[in-house]
Structure formats: C-alpha cells, structure tokens
C-alpha cells in the first residue's frame, strides 16, 4: 500500500457549524413568527460566510414554490424557501452586483407590501381613468 492508496476526505467543520448555527437561528425566529407574529430579517452580507457556506445554506433551505422579481432602480429577487415563512431576498444595484442578501421571516416579504401612499396614488389614477370614460 502506498500513500496514494489512502483515501482522504477534507471537510470544513467551521462551515458546517456556521450553517447549523444559522439554521437554528432561523428556526427560533420562525417559532417567534408563528407564536407572536414577529417578523425578522437576517442580513447575510453581515455574516462572515465563505462562498461555499452561502451555497450550503441555499442547499439546506431549498427553494419553495413562491417567488417574485421586482424591477426597480436595481432588480430584486425573492423566493420562499422550502420552509414556508422563510424567504431569501436578494437586491441588486443597476450593475447587477448584490447589494443586500437577506433571510426574511414573514408571511410575505416587507418589500412586496404596498405602501399606503402608493395605494392612494393608485386609487387617484384609477378614479381619473374612470372619470375620463364618463
């Protein structure tokens, strides 16, 4: 037997521990959302994650059926993970760089909620359109 015959498997226990710790935090926040209605966000860009940890977290959370894409100054991509109430929200600048990467615990991400002033403006435009048909 030579050294070439020895099987070596390298694992990054730090990565595994970081992902597990974050999944536990998400579970705790999801429990608070269920019991108290408390929504929350975790800023992934503020965490010292390596690229492989991001991918490990994406794999662990999976992808559910609901998703949305916003086209504003910079695009935003939102999708519910395999766990209802746990959303992965990514905001991009106009160059396509990620400027915010968040896990949001909520029934619907806050950015998708219509703002009261926008609803009022929409009503005004609809009323103007209707009055032009009379």
Which structural traits does this protein have?
single chain; 134 residues; alpha+beta; Ribosomal Protein S8, Chain: A, domain 1; 3 helices
Question: Approximately what portion of the residues adopt beta-strand conformation?
Answer: 15-25%
* CATH fold category name: Ribosomal Protein S8, Chain: A, domain 1
Helical segment tally? 3
Helical amount: 25-40%
Note the overall shape.
Answer: elongated
What's the number of domains?
1
User: What's the assembly state of these chains?
Assistant: single chain
Largest sheet: 5 strands, antiparallel
Q: Report the radius of gyration as a whole number of Å.
A: 21 Å
Residue-averaged pLDDT, rounded? 88
CATH architecture classification: 2-Layer Sandwich
- What order do the SSEs take from the amino end to the carboxyl end, as H and E? HEHEEEEH
End-to-end distance = 92 Å
Number of strands: 5
Which residues sit in consecutive blocks of at least 5 with pLDDT less than 50? 8-14
Class from helix and strand fractions? alpha+beta
Arrangement of strands in the largest sheet = 1-5-4-3-2
CATH superfamily membership = HupH hydrogenase expression protein, C-terminal domain
CATH class: Alpha Beta
Structure description:
The chain has 134 residues and is α+β, with helices and mostly antiparallel strands. It has a single domain, classed as HupH hydrogenase expression protein, C-terminal domain (Ribosomal Protein S8, Chain: A, domain 1, 2-Layer Sandwich), CATH 3.30.1370. It is 39% helix and 22% strand. The protein is built from 3 helices and 5 strands, in the order αβαββββα. It has a 5-stranded antiparallel β-sheet with strand order 1-5-4-3-2. α1 (13-36) packs across α2 (51-61). The longest helix has 24 residues, at 13-36. The protein is elongated, with a radius of gyration of 21 Å. The chain starts with 12 loop residues before the first helix and ends with a helix. Mean pLDDT is 88; it is low at 8-14.
């Amino acid at each position: 037997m030579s050294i070439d015959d020895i099987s070596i498997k390298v694992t990054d226990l730090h990565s595994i521990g970081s992902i597990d710790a974050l999944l536990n935090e998400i579970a705790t926040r999801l429990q608070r959302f269920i019991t108290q209605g408390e929504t929350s966000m975790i800023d992934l860009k503020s965490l010292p994650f390596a690229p492989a940890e991001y991918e490990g977290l994406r794999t662990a959370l999976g992808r559910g059926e609901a998703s949305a894409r916003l086209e504003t100054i910079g695009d935003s991509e939102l999708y519910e993970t395999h766990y209802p109430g746990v959303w992965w929200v990514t905001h991009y600048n106009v160059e396509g760089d990620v400027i915010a990467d968040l896990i949001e615990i909520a029934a619907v991400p806050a950015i998708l909620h219509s703002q009261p002033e926008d609803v009022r403006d929409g009503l005004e435009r609809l009323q103007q359109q209707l009055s032009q048909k009379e």
